[in-house]
Specification:
491 residues, two-stranded parallel sheet
Length: 491
């Protein structure tokens, strides 16, 4: 039997593809990774010849294990480790006295101190903003008042009306002698033209791109993006949350207003935000800034008697440079603490099995669990995957609300009216495992109640999902959800 050259080449390539697919799948198994994720990738590699390997190279490699995001020379990390060790010792030695004063959840505080060196912070004020417009106006106003420096980091910066407004302000501040530093993600801000950055640099602004997109490099990946949103002004005021610098966050979209949650912090947490910014800068430049100039006084542990009118928090930072998945473990710790209710808002919901089970266990145990999800999303597959979790959550007694008036981009969790988590991380595997994220865990009833009050207002813009109606949805929707669920470990 005669075979053409193409048939022979095709057969050889196919055999090489299958051999490489088996090798990659075997390597993942030997690394003892999540079996569901490993099985999903094995199916992709075998079922999609050639394409599967390309998808794996872009999405599947685990750089957390490879430790390519090392920070051995990061001076600030060493300072943070030392502080957390002292705070941990204090909490251990004074456990009974602190617990009696009920100013925090000591077990959760210590968990976060140990997981990722997240110091206990003592703040004067935390202000909430529940729309992109309000948050960006507050950030703009704070930058206008800067005297010494501005550190600004966003996943998305666009050269539209909103982006241009901020660019002009930063140029003005830089020319007046204020030190301005900007970090934006190479993929999130991929559409940002070079001219935008050049105008800033020509005015003396330091502009850095985190993990630039260069398709020809073997290290390019769509995972491991810097999704953080951080602003620090003069080391005194700091902002974090879900808002980026783009028109849709300020003016909304065709589908309606853009709802989001951002916070402004005055207090010790600003030091933690500064620390995170400088660590990301160190990753890009491999250079440290002189610490004394860019930090307020050193954080110290305070006695319980000093805690009146003080808002306690911890800034949770997680990413491929973290040994532990700090944000996921923080979510788990917070959910496990609940005794009365849990409110969750997330635009993308593809949780790990651990978090999903923790939510269901809480609901089955009588905790009032409510989750707000978008009725429509900007990512079809992700939305199908999100909807695939609804039925089992309903079966566990969780109440699901679909937000339909515009888009709710908030990432918020509150527990028992006592704790609130606000930041950049969605409740999905990408935020837990792949992206660089930042969240603020706030141990304060007033802040938690403010976030919960907004949740209750937003419920009026939602549709409550009932078991009866959900089971009657079209078969086509169920098929899409099953397809999306298959991809959920990879999203």
């Amino acid at each position: 039997m005669n075979y053409s050259v193409w048939q022979i080449v095709s057969a050889v390539l196919y055999i090489m593809n299958m051999g490489l697919a088996v090798y990659i799948a075997g390597t993942m198994i030997l690394r003892k990774q999540d079996p569901v994720k490993t099985l999903s990738w094995a199916i992709v590699l075998v079922a999609l010849p050639y394409i599967g390997i390309i998808i794996y190279l872009f999405f599947g490699q685990n750089y957390r294990k490879k430790k390519i995001y090392g920070k051995k020379g990061d001076a600030d990390l060493r300072v943070r480790k030392s502080l957390c060790a002292k705070q941990n010792e204090y909490l251990s030695d004074n456990y009974d006295d602190i617990d009696a004063n009920e100013w925090g959840y000591v077990k959760l505080l210590r968990q976060n101190l140990n997981v990722g060196y997240y110091p206990v912070e003592f703040n004067k004020s935390i202000d909430f903003f529940f729309t992109g417009r309000d948050a960006l106006d507050a950030i703009y106003s704070s930058i206008e008042g800067a005297k010494r420096y501005v550190h600004l980091q966003f996943y998305i910066i666009e050269n539209d009306r909103t982006g241009a407004k901020f660019k002009d302000l930063l140029v003005k501040k830089a020319r007046s002698g204020v030190e301005v530093r900007i970090i934006y993600d190479g993929l999130g801000s991929y559409a940002l033209k070079r001219k935008f950055a050049e105008e800033l640099r020509s005015s003396g602004v330091e502009v850095l791109v985190f993990s630039p997109v260069r398709l020809l490099l073997p290290t390019f990946t769509l995972n491991y993006r810097n999704h953080r949103k951080i602003v620090v002004v003069d080391g005194k005021e700091g902002f974090i949350g879900g808002v980026n610098i783009a028109d849709r966050y300020y003016y909304g979209t065709e589908s309606g207003d853009w709802h989001d949650t951002h916070i402004k912090i005055v207090g010790d947490a600003v030091t933690s935000l500064q620390s995170c910014f400088l660590q990301d800068r160190y990753f890009i430049l491999n250079k440290n800034l002189k610490r004394k100039r860019y930090f307020p006084p050193k954080l110290e542990m305070k006695e319980p008697v000093e805690m009146q009118d003080t808002i306690i928090s911890q800034t949770i930072v997680s990413g491929p440079d973290s040994f532990w998945s700090g944000i996921m473990l923080c979510y788990l710790g917070v959910i496990s603490q609940a005794t009365h209710h849990i409110y969750i808002v997330s635009p993308y919901f593809t949780p790990s099995e651990t978090i999903l089970n923790a939510i269901k266990i809480a609901a089955l145990g009588g905790v009032d669990v409510r989750i707000m999800l978008p009725e429509a999303s900007d990512s079809r597959i992700t939305h199908w995957s999100t909807m695939s979790y609804v039925q089992e959550l309903l079966d566990a007694g969780v109440r699901i609300y679909l937000f339909g008036e515009g888009f709710n981009h908030s990432k918020v969790v509150t527990v028992d009216g006592k704790m609130a988590i606000v930041g950049s991380a969605n409740m999905d595997m990408r935020s837990f495992e792949h992206n660089f994220e930042i969240m603020s865990l706030i141990y304060n009833e007033k802040c938690a109640m403010e976030a919960e009050s907004q949740f209750e207002k937003d419920i009026t813009l939602c549709k409550l999902v009932t078991n009866t109606k959900w089971k009657k949805r079209p078969v086509g929707e169920k098929v899409k959800e099953s397809f999306g669920r298959l991809w959920s470990p990879l999203l």
